[in-house]
Amino acid sequence: MKMALSHFETTILLALFISAVLGVVTKRTDKERLHYGLTSFGYFLLTIFGLSWLMFLGHR
User: Fold this and answer.
1) Whole-model pTM?
2) Long-range contacts of 4-7 (CB under 8 A, 24+ apart)
3) How buried is residue 33: exposed, middle or buried, by Cβ count under 10 Å (0-12/13-18/19+)?
């Protein structure tokens, strides 16, 4: 079965995986890991949407 993801879905999935790995390898306690992972995922989302808007406005 072939899975076809859009560019947006792939980017969100990559951000989720990177955030999870960063949380696991950089913090010591589970609480710190969860907080850091969620925070970095939020920053990834802000960056993704911010750059998307810049590209959209730049192509107008």
Assistant:
1) 0.86
2) none
3) middle
